[in-house]
Structures
1.
Amino acid sequence: ITILRLSMGCSGLSFNSVPLPPVGTYQRSCEGGAHHRQRRSWVWNQFFVLEEYTGDEPLYVGKLHSDVDKGEGQVKYVLNGQGATSIFTIDENTGDIHATKRLDREEQAYYTLRAQARNRENNLPVEPESEFVIKVQDINDNEPKFLNGPYSARVPEMSPVGTSVVTVVATDADDPTYGNSARVIYSILEGQPYFSVEPKTGVVKTALPNMDREARDQYLLVIQAKDMVGQMGGLSGTTSVMVTLTDVNDNPPHFSRKSYQFSMSESLPVASVVAKIKTLDSDVGPNAEMEYRIVDGDGLGLFRITPDRDTQEGLITLQKGLDFETKSSYTLRVEVSNRNIDLRFLSLGPFSDTATVRLIVENVDEPPVFSLPLSKMLISEAAKVGTTIGTVSAHDPDSTNSPIRYSIDRNTDLERFFNIDATTGVISTAKPLDREVNAIHNITIFAMESLHPLQVGKCIILITVTDINDNAPVFAIEYETYLCESARPGQVIETISAMDRDEPQSGHRFFFSLTAEAAGNLNFTLRDNKDNTASVLTMRGGFQRHDQTMYRLPVLIMDGGSPALSSTNTLSIRVCDCDPDGAPQSCGSEASMLSAGLSTGALIAILACILTLLEGGVDREMDRQREKPLILDEERDVRENIVRYDDEGGGEEDTEAFDMVALRNLKLVRESGGKTRRDVTPEVPSLFLSSRPPPDNGIFRDFIWDRLKEADVDASAPPYDSLQTYAFEGSGSAAESLSSLDSLSTDSEQNYDYLSDWGPRFKKLADLYGHSDDGNLLAS
């Protein structure tokens, strides 16, 4: 055991430690102020203590001694710093330092403390404070750990030996600078002979060639890391590595069978899938994607084969329609191959396969087929009823060759303009045609098998009605022609044009002229402009309104058809007072009255007489209406009256309780918010109307309105001019019930004698519910 001594000045603290051997001495002297050297022990300002001490007694660390301490008990030693008093203690008399707790280098590798010698009596320092370090010395107490484990790795199947898979790393918490406690060696415990691990680097590699994923796709490895360079007594840790073999395209596809047979109906539509062929491939993902093609057979243009994206099955689809009577079976030779081929494995064989597919067509009863699904025909609008337009033809495609019967879909010929011969298919007119009403008729023809009426085919016929010259030309618009009083002779006052509902192939050509009776007039003339228009010109001036306000000029318009048609159209010309720019200002009708030979005063007198007569007639009619009673006679028609019974006692003659306007115009009543009619005031007094407000008619109005809407949308309802009767009594009565059932069940003692005061209409009720002489209630 060597005493490590630290001398400070001519006197100082000495540190005695246990663990290190003697290496020399060092002394410093201050005697006489002269310095001289003398061999003494080397001095370090640090102590060493082993970690994980498990003894029962405190662990001795070292000794602190001062040159001032002469052993007389005048000096005491004090320890401060990290762990002082809690981990490390010092004997104040001897300076011995002990560790009272077990230390762990991995938690704290060293402790820095301060030591001082003090006078015991006055506690003053006898030497300056000195700092020293207690270093925790490592032992192999930590095993290697894989902080990133467990591991998972992927490596392609069929990889060569030595292919790197993954690198595992283990760490040791022990001191790597002291001994071999942290030097780790790797080894494989499980996973041989398929994989190996580099002892120093931890790189996991493949150890066997041609590992096949289809045989086994996962391997669980156990890797060990051991410290002390793998020697006996070293600590170890393990981790697992899950190695998955990824797929490569090392397996060719092949059909599950060499020949297939499928059946298909001849009525299948184009693009239907007629067969699905299963192909086997041990690979997965992109390595199992297929490509198909038809390499031979008698249906090369009729069928197509493509892969299903999800299942990679071969889907044979129909490209054209089938016909059992034409061909009843097909034979195809199909080939399958991988879409993504790995050239490294071509030596294993061809990555394709072939199979034979036989497709059998099943016969079905097909509807008749028209020779043309769409036909166009022409017919003149001058054709007489019964004129043949054209012929349609259909046949039964089945071997039975059933006779065909033809008919017209009347939903496409509602007015029944056409007929068809049920046997021959000849289409003819059934009514006169008018091109100007309907120029093209689109009708549907049905062809039905006589032996199988449910089998029906159809075709579309477009019948175009050709034009004939059967409409005379007329004015293009309704002209309003104004003639200024200041017009000069030869002035154009209007330019007219014509229209014709016919449509000649060469276009319209119209000729304008005045009629024979108007040709000699001295007021106006007509000039044909040769461009389907004509100009109206004045022949004189001096037109005056007071002479004549309106002139009517008959114009003859003729078309260029064969035969030519013409019509006479009258042009009304009004004489007006115009401003200097020629704009009409006043076009009164006074002059036309004068032309009738009557003066203005005479006309006013006539109008006054007419108004007087009308006023007298209206007054007499109103007086006659006031004299009529409001209560209807028995002979009068009462079908438009609805009697309200919710008063329960109003009687059959009480027709004023209900407003008839609510029934005559339901829509108007609903829009007005249910306001009752106020323009009629009953003249016959009513006991109930005077005693309380009239009940709300909204219940009956809503009921009738709802029934009306139901009838409007009900296809099975009677026609609009029918009478519908509903037994609806409303939701209750404001007068409450007068039922005798309720009276008897509740032993009611209510007095109904007041019924006799209501008049003869309630006499029957008064007799039934009034009290008898003996005071008992009568009931029927």
Note: The radius of gyration is 63 Å.
2.
Amino acid sequence: MIFVSWTLKIEEMAVNLWNWAITNKMDLVINEEQKAKVRHVACKLIRMCEHPDASEEAIQRQILMSMKTGKGWVDVGNVALADDFFQSAMTSLEQLYSKLTQRSPTEEHVIMQKNTVERDLLKVLSYQAEAAVAEGDFQRASSCILRCKDMLMRLPQMAYYLHTVCYNLGIQIYKENKYEESCFWLSQSYDIGRTDRNSVEPEMLAKVLRLLATAYLDWDSSEYYDKALNIINLANKEELHPVGLFLKVKILLKNEMANQELFQTLMEILHFGMSLNFCLNIVKLLVDHERGSIGFYFLKIICEHFQSSEDTSKAQLLHIDMLLQRKEEMFAKEKVEEIIIGHQTGKPLASELIGYFHSIIWKQAARSFQVHNFDNALHWYCYSLRFYAADQSDLDLAKLQRNMASCYLHLGRFDKAKEAVIKAAQRDPRNIFTQFYIFKISIVEGNSGRALEAIITLEYLLTTEEQHENNASTKRSSGVMLFSLAAQFALENGQQVVAVKALENLAKYSEEPPQVLTALKCLFRLFLPRVSQMPECENKKKEMDRLLAYFNRALLNLTQLFEGEAWTLASKINEAHWFRKTAWNLAVQCEKDPLSMREFFVLSYKLSQFCPSDQVILIAQKTCLLMAAAIDLDQGRKASTAFEQTCFLNRALDLICKCRDIWNLLKTTGDFSRDPCETLLLLYEFEVRAKLSDPLLDHFLEPVWELPHLESKAFETIAALAMEMPACYPSIALKALKKALFFHKRKESIDVLGYSKCMHSLVNLLVPDGVPNTELCPMEEIWGNFEDALIFISQTEGYPEMEILCLMIKSWNIGIFLYSKRMYVSTEKWCSLALRLLNYLGSLKSTYETQVNILYSELVEALEKNKRSAFNEE
């Protein structure tokens, strides 16, 4: 009892769920796939309640639910799930049939019940056919449908249903270009449909046959053309329809039917009373299939046949179009004159045909223009202009005036061209093509100011209106094309200033990197000769800034060019080489403008990154970065504020790091032992770190002291930089100067002058303002340095006299300083050193000797008086 109760509850739940799906589908709450899922669950629940003694009603419900669920899954494309439900429906049908035959009292009743079951069986088989088609299983699908077809003898009322199923399958397969299978389904649809003419109308049978003929035709095999022709004839017998007649002509053309037989069919069309539009479409079909002669002849017959029709103008226009295609201009002009006169004297063209008329005329004018027959082009445009007399507000009239202006320009009739352009501007001043012709007229007249205004207006129209238009991209590309043509026209007429503006706009608005780069190269070729001859002034600075902007745009477009595939790699690299070399040459010319020089060097480096990293490119990159870093350092030294100086120094440090990477790579390509790059990088980086007060400066210098290739000059530079504001590192300067002196003395050929300068720097560091810096260096070490200088002077010739004098004065001042400190013994030692240095003076000795000796005597006398204080000295 409990089991029965649960079964009933599940069954009730399943039915309620099923009904809910139907109700909510009608209310559009759930979509088809969701509906299939709900039905799936409901059907599964019902199948859980199956038992051998189920009632006929329950079995019929199971059949219905299984069929509907399977069909739902087929409709949403999930055939795999559908098959299970179709098999379940088949099983339930067998069960129902068994029950019905067992309880039916008479044979007549058995037949009736069997028909009921077979009707559902046919539907299941048709659903299985649809599922098989979805899976691409033609054999299975056709087998199912043929079984259904056999059942129609017992179920004639299902003929319309099966006919429709086959037709829909034929359409579905035709769309997938499976013409052979489509022909099978459509043939079955026709065969089934004609067995039940009470239900299937002739129009529907004709429709099936037309699609079947189309499938045979599209199969594109000549062996099926005859079959297609027979089928379309059959379709036209079922229903005479324009589509059927059109298709018949198409089949005849495909079958390359002789003109005589084809003409018979065409005359049949007239006999059947087809419309003028239909007949004209037949003419176009004939022309498209290269049967222009018979098409032209048929068109003449059409014109005569529909002479009294209001729509005859359409035939006349097509006649003109065909005459022009056949290059029979004289006859075409006569027909055009007839239409124009008729339009102006009470036989106006329909509004929908006016555009067609102008299209024919303009196409012929364009053909003449292309072969440079500008007089003839004007003649055809004048036909169009005469037609516009009735409607002067059309914007196309402005376009017509522009086209006529172009012809006049080519013919050298500038007054007429100007007149046409003025008329175009009156009607359509905001048109970019109108402005372009204003520009051309201005160039021809030599009015560069007006030409520039036209270019500026063209740019304004391009930038301000494109955001409000749907065809903004088309207008932009047209505008870019006009800038290109304008630049070319201006250059051809010697208007360089105007050409520059057009080229700048071309480079600015074009979205094609090759076009942008070509425009920029033209600009450089125009500017470089002029800029190189300009004196240093504000105007030259402006021109240099403009060139820098050009390079930045070139850099951006080279990036895009290398990302694309339009050019070969070699062509791309050649472009990059051209721009990097140009940037280098400009940098070299900016000797008096270091900031511009720096920017050009940096740009040359960036542009060179598009080139293969061979030795030549690496050397160029290294040089660019070194020069740019040097300029940044120099600007940092001149900076008026600490913030400005920091910016320059940080920028220099970035360039130095990049340069070091390139230098390390370059060293692997050859011998660069004589290249000073490494030393310069070291000095540049030291200067930056020193002036930025880098806390790791000593750590940075640790390996530097041990470098074998550094010479005395490098250490002297380190010393100078260590004390150059805002840096202040006296201990580093002292160590560097000692290193420098060591290297000076170690040379085989001693540079006396260099040694003296280095010693001078050391003495100034140790004894600033005449007072020894004992915090930096003890007195004994200071004394040692002076003695070293004296020994060097005594052993070499050519020591600068002024340097000896400086040492003498410094020595004397130290002695006097010590005297003030009551250090009398040391005082005498330092002053005696001054007297010894005095002996090595040349021409200056006589000047200082008497004075120094007197001072020394006075000092000795003072020292004698203070001998008792000698113990005060430490």
Note: The first helix runs from residue 2 to 26.
3.
Amino acid sequence: MKMKFLLILLLSFCFESVSSHFDPYGTLGVKRGATLQEIRKAYKLLAKEWHPDKSNNPSAQEEFVEINRAYELLRDPERRKLYDNRGISEDTPNFRPPRPEAYAYSTFDPFDDLSSVFGKGFRFQFHMPDSGLFHEQTITLKGYEKNVLPASARTPQLILTYSDWCMGCVRAAPMWKRLGEEMNPVGISMSTVHAGREPKLARNFGARTDSLPHLVLLMDGRIYQYRDETLSVINIIRFIREKFGTQLIPRVDDSNYEDFLNGWRDNRVRVLITGKAEVLRLRYLALAYQYRRFAAFGYARLIEGETTQIQDRYNIPSTMDSMFVFREEVDTPAAKLSMPDLPFSVMTDVLEANKYLLLPRISSQKILDELCPLDSSRVRRRLCVMLVAEEEDEDAQESLRKYAKVYRGPGKDRVGFVYVSKKGQQAFVQALIEADESMVKNPDRRLVIIWRRNLSSVSFLWIPGTWKRDEESENDGFAEDILPPWNSSQYELTAALKRLFSDDGNLPNETTMKELVDENAAGLLQRIYNRILILLESIKDRIRKEDLLAAVSVIATIVFIMAVAYVMAYLVSLEEETIQAKRSKATSPSSNSCASTASTATLQLKMHELRGETYNGMVRLLKPGCRTIVLLLDKETKAKILPVFHRIVWPYRKNKTLMFGWMYVERGLDWYKQLLSLALPLGEGNPDPQQLESINPRNCIGTILSLNGHRKYFCIYHAKHLEGQQRAAYAEAKNNGLRRRIGRSRGQKKNGEDFLGFEDSSSDSDRSSDVEQGLSSPDDVVS
């Protein structure tokens, strides 16, 4: 072990020695203690100076790579600290400095001790994938978030999760190597994740220890799970094709190619790919995915009769694959490429040089950053000539497009021509108007030259007058070495550009610019719909067949239990209704009384009619302590009085000593007279019992009888209301405090004759005395 540790230190020393020749601070020209802002500023200046597209120096490519390498190292605090402390300058995202425990982990042979038993020649033939191709492509969580995830917006990423002592991973290693040979030339990246060392990242991919190796495809930040049981090159390529979809490169023929090429008004160039193959090559799909923001792709299969017009019009060779890039001009392609086998790198170079229209529209902040980049240096500043116009104003756009095509004045490589919609970018245009007091309020068809010095500051200059169309030309002569000034507005623009690219050129106005609106962004409902689709697809990808069966089983069990519970509850309710109906029928004295009770009372409080058939049950056979409360009424007043009586006695429904009922006065009048005769006192000055024959039944309506059949006594209650003059007299007496006089006036009729109904039977029943009291007198009841 000591020898191994010394070997590790020696390798680490050699590694640091080899890496020490690279000095990122010297490459960027900053001090060791420079801040991140100073490093970023130095990087921008050097990157613009040594960019291969802007520098003619033969070593520009190498210098540019070194500048990017130094910047990537110093912008990462951990890697910068590692370089400052140990001089390690490795800049790969999956780099780990050599450690004794890591080295021992990766090279440890658990069967070394067996050699002492079986001899030194014994070897266990098992090689971990960690020591080969898988280890070279391994990424960490930090490398994934920093590099792989952002890169998936342009390049599809195949990611394989593996682990130690995984027999499936060992078998998949040769296939993974062959797949890399197929994917690398077509622009699809590949990487691996160690499930044991990066468990969080492995869980993010949905990998499980019992299902390794696990493959996913990362496209535009979305993870697609590979579900095929067989891990082979053919199946993986088929899986990638399915995720690209058929809408990425639609088919084009003689019937629709003109509509396809004339669709450049969506602010994207058109790329037409031709060939004889029925199935699109994977490199074409990867290319279309990478440039989908800048170009719309179409594929024309060269078949006689279907693409004859396309072949004749553009002189397409039938024996080779071809790629045509079209801008606004449909008749002449901006770039053409024909080869038996179109390399991915060559197609990428062609599209990089022609990925914008001659006059693109500024529809988002990203497009503005790409077409009008930031440049704080006045010497190398890049200007943008911007036309404020709507999409419908095609004449002004076409005029500026022609101007941009033939412009060959000063700063040709450092000036761009664009147009912006006044409605779509209203805040941006309004800021330019308000910053220039001399500017008119209507900026339609006006030109403005802008220079973006930083993210928020913009210097600009409005060109006088509106931009004129070609038919408004004033002369046709060429102005020496600049361009043909067809009219005065074009002449003003040419003079302004010549002045700005000179030493004393200056942009007089400056304003603060906010971030532009993304005109192509989806609406709120569309974003919600897309999120739901992504969520459903993610759930579909992450759920395996076994999990789905388990979930379906649980849901089916819950539904079955709820259905059984509902049926049982329904059957119980039916049984309760049946029992309730039987009880109500059994307790009902007669069918007539049941019908009347059901219509006037609830099941909790039953009131029965007092008559000959129910007399024994309601009066004579009452148990000790029980009483029957009876209301006197007639057929005319039953519907009005009985509900009121029911509502009054409702609070006493739970009292088991009370029974409630009612009686028709016409049917029980003789019994009522006999009852009153027992209650009247006999003697001189008292009513004659014969007067009971003259009782008016109408005056007895509303009387309440409380009958105690066991003790043989009863109570009577009858309410009277003050009416007419007697009510007025009562009110006056009340005001004067003469309550005794009122008491004597109540005694005008002796012994309560009016209360008991002793009055002329011919008198109106509505007339009543002023007595308002309850009279109760106990007496024996004759059975």
Note: Residues 385 and 417 are 5 Å apart (CA to CA).
